[in-house]
Amino acid sequence: MASRRFLQSFPKTPRRRKALVAMPFALIAVVTVVDVIAPPDVHLGPFLVAAPAVAASFTGPRMTAFVGAVAVLAQSLVAVARTSINDLNHTYQIIALILISVFVTFFAHLRERNEQAVSQLRSVAEAAQRVVLRPLPRRSGPLRIASVYLAAEAEAQIGGDLYAAARTTDGTRLIIGDVRGKGLSAIGEAASVLGAFHALSRQESQLPDLVAHLEASIALDENHTVHEGVDDDRDLAESFVTAAVLDIPDAATELHLVSCGHPPPLLLRAGEAKPLNVRAPAPPLGLTHLLVTEHRAQTFTFGVGDTLLLYTDGVIESRDRSGAFYPLPERAASRCGQGPDSLLESLCADLVRHAGGCLGDDAALVAIERLPASG
């Protein structure tokens, strides 16, 4: 599993870090030299406050305080060189510089403490997500698999996108889904679905039976939540999981698909991306109690060299600046023939460019390529 977060942060490489730290000192040097040689009625000392202010935006409180001290020293040297340290104008400039340096040093302390808290929350969120979203195997029988998870938020927002694969006696079963909502409730629902999928994949011989038991497990979990009094009835009525569950036999060049309100997978073949729309899709998991539902699997051809692309709605609902949705079928079709890893890497980069670097929702993609039986 790959997890990517798109942050607008300051460069963190050592070379760029040193370049940033050098900027306030360069500013101090330039202002000091120009102020000393400037005419008597020109005073550039107030520009020195920019040095600690700039430093506070990307360094810690110690470095900010040091930059402020250097700026105060520089202002003192200017005062001695031009008139006297006791000159009233320079005295007020020095006092103002000291006060501003103290203020921005305190600001740098608050910013550093907040960044540490966010970093800890992010680490907890990523750890929880790694536990729920187990890495998919790179190979499963004749299948080569790649997956990626794109998080929309830089902070500790945990999404409900999910995917998993399970090996059976004669093939591979996969699920991709999207839990309504975000946060801990979404990740708990995702963990419940994935736990049931892993537990039932080898027990149920028929794909519709597996999906029916997944639905039953969600209903059981919701009933337990009601008895515990954790959620109200309104939240439970709005709780559901869209999912696509697949069975891909090793020997037969086909796949079986049950769709529960999830976007159709794309079959990439010969430069085309064909959506696998099932004739009788079921409602999302968690909503079948509202109407009579019969889960049916539909069979599609999946031959050697074909690639199957699974995704969540965070991909196709991503918008550009004009409001246009991301054209996944067209972009995927133009990348036919690439391996699963290269395909996902290329699509993710293209998706982020389309969204202007900020996704509106979490997104997950899984690419499966069928290799020759001897491969």
Overall description:
The chain is built from ten helices and twelve strands. The protein has helices spanning 14-37, 50-56, 61-82, 88-132, 183-200, 207-228, 233-237, 313-316, 328-333, 340-354; strands at 3-5, 139-140, 143-151, 159-167, 171-182, 241-249, 254-260, 266-269, 272-275, 298-301, 307-311, 363-370. A hairpin with a 2-residue loop joins strand 2 and strand 3 (143-151).
Characterize the quaternary organization of these chains. single chain
| Mean pLDDT score | 84
Strand percentage lies at 15-25%
Relative helix content: 40-55%
- Count up the helices: 10
Give, in order, the helices and strands: EHHHHEEEEHHHEEEEEEHHHE
Spatial shape: elongated
Any low-confidence stretches, pLDDT <50, length ≥5? Answer: 1-12, 224-237
Largest sheet: 7 strands, mixed
Please tally the β strands and state the result.
12
Helix-strand layout with pairing:
Layout: E1 3-5, H1 14-37, H2 50-56, H3 61-82, H4 88-132, E2 139-140, E3 143-151, E4 159-167, E5 171-182, H5 183-200, H6 207-228, H7 233-237, E6 241-249, E7 254-260, E8 266-269, E9 272-275, E10 298-301, E11 307-311, H8 313-316, H9 328-333, H10 340-354, E12 363-370
Parallel strand pairs: 1-3
Antiparallel strand pairs: 2-3, 3-12, 4-5, 5-6, 6-7, 7-10, 8-9, 8-11, 11-12
Helix pairs in contact: 1-2, 1-3, 2-3, 2-4, 3-4, 5-6
Features:
five-stranded antiparallel sheet, 10 helices, alpha+beta, disordered N terminus, 20% strand, seven-stranded mixed sheet, 375 residues
